[in-house]
Amino acid sequence: MIELTLAEIAEAVDGRLVVGSSGATSATVVRGISQTDSREVAPGQIFFARRGEETDGHRFAGSAVDAGAALLVVEQEADDRVPQIVVAESTIALGRLATEVVRRVRAGGELTIVGITGSNGKTTTKNLVAAMAERRGASVASEKSFNNEVGGPLTMLRVDAGTRTLVAEMGASAEGEIARLTAMAPPAIGVVLTVGLAHAGEFGGIETTFRTKSEMVRDLPNDAVAVLNRDDPYVTRMAELTAARVRWFGQHPEAEVRASGIDSDASGTRFTLHIGDASRPVVFRVLGEHHVTNALAAAAVGSELGLTLEQIVEALEGATRAARWRMEVMGGRDGITVVNDAYNASPDSMAAGLRTLAQIARPGARTVAVLGAMSELGEYSIEEHRRIGLQAVRLGISELVVVGQEARNLHISAINEGSWDGESVFFEEQDAAFDHLVRTLQPNDTVLVKSSNAAGLRLLGDRLGEAF
Ligand code: ATP
Ligand code: MG
Fold it and tell me: Which is the closest atom of ligand 1 to the Cα of 293?
């Protein structure tokens, strides 16, 4: 973060400065990124005390100061050993400070902001784009899935005068959230990956999701670029809503950034990357053909950032599948491959995971899908679990192992589908599922473990990975 005086920060966040016993004045300069978790505070940083649903950050103000916080932003005075700025709402103040910091850095003229949204693939794409951005100088990218009203500004506050690229994942659990994030850090390049039922329960339907994700491009000025997925009909519609120049990616012949000849196995996906008339072969080690979409989006951004085709291919090929619980490949004993993708699950990513399982299986060997519930689907839950069960049958998955009551409809729909050589088994608890798998897995089986985070199957995946 850039340097600001306490007076400047107080003004930016619309708060009242209390210097307390700290000896600071309004001209005291603070330099340091911000935290909302006192355990993350490093000396010189700013601590924002937020009132969450479960805990109240004000309780941890003292530990933040002990950890070296240089400034507290609070809703009520909490610890007078360091200066405090008292605001009406800390989360809003956090957004305001991010807005001011980004505004100042942008005024320097060197910062390019890339905003990334979509129902699936944001983090994967963000990581790929970050690898591209590194090739043009200092860059800041969201950590983990920091993409909401807290993680967004925390990321933005890390930019400074030397930052050339800010790569910001922007998510939404309600309409208006992405627009608030793009107002804080206005993208020069706005990416929309997919519109699907990732959090349909919260949103109330695909049209609402469409409108919500559109916020990424709706406010883009005409000198900005909208990077849009030509293969997704909802994302395609967004071209009409934006003043920005559109760059299409996808497998659609009209997409300028395109993939052809896609072919995958458990070692990765090979395809030919086309940008306009130029093309190069790519070996992409992030498992699953659905990730080609994310690779293409990142390639389009890389090209907008001025990278050469060679640099783009290098960045894509440098990406590993190492991210924990995201198509993480484990196992190996007796040729058994365990793919642990239990970091999260939506109907689209579940479907994509199953397709990948079918594609990467060893010829003639079995495919086993160990699936838990997809949460946050609200009224769509029963229907979507049934649909995934049917899809497993249609893909000819050899065995479905369904874990947890919430996922039961997946099992029911599969066993009711007569035309199937495979079988489905149901377990209430993952321990029982684990015992079953340890007993029954056969050499050369490929196993996919997938559920929403809440269903917790990542543990089961890890245990299987260790067992084989
Ligand atoms: P979150 O909302 O949790 O931050 P995200 O949008 O950042 O999610 P990732 O973490 O990149 O997404 O991927 C989440 C899941 O979606 C993974 O299982 C991944 O394999 C799958 N996925 C990624 N891209 C696609 C896609 N284009 N279509 C379907 N599934 C996808
Ligand atoms: Mg994410």
Answer: 27
The answer for residues whose C-beta is within 8 angstroms of residue 82's C-beta and 6 or more apart is 20, 22, 24, 65, 69, 70, 71, 72
Task: Give the Cβ contact number of residue 310 at 10 Å.
Answer: 9
Q: What 8-state DSSP symbol labels residue 271?
A: E
Q: What is the pLDDT of residues 218-228, one digit of tens each?
A: 999 999 999 99
Using an 8 Å Cβ cutoff, are 199 and 212 in contact? no
For residue 418, CA distances in Å to 413, 414, 422 come to: 10, 8, 10
- The conformational region for residue 232 under phi > 0 = left, psi -120 to 50 = alpha, else beta, is beta
Task: Supply the pTM of this predicted model.
Answer: 0.87
Atom 24, ligand 1: which residue's CA is nearest?
Answer: 121
Query: How many other C-beta atoms can be found within 10 angstroms of the C-beta atom of residue 462?
Result: 18
Evaluate: CB of 453 within 6 angstroms of ligand 1. no
Q: Are 354 and 448 in contact (CB under 8 A)?
A: yes
User: How does pLDDT run across 405-461, given as a tens digit for each residue?
Assistant: 999 999 999 999 877 889 999 999 999 999 999 999 999 999 999 999 999 999 999
CA dist 398 and 415 (Å) reads 13
Q: Which of 179, 188, 247 is nearest to 213 (CA)?
A: 179
DSSP codes, 350-384: HHHHHHHHHHHSPTT--EEEEE----S-GGGHHHH
- Give the position, in ligand 1's atom list, of the atom nearest the Cα of 118: 6
Asked casually if ipTM beats, i.e. exceeds, 0.90, the reply is yes
Report the greatest alpha carbon distance in the chain.
Answer: 77
Alpha carbon nearest to ligand 1 atom 10, residue: 123
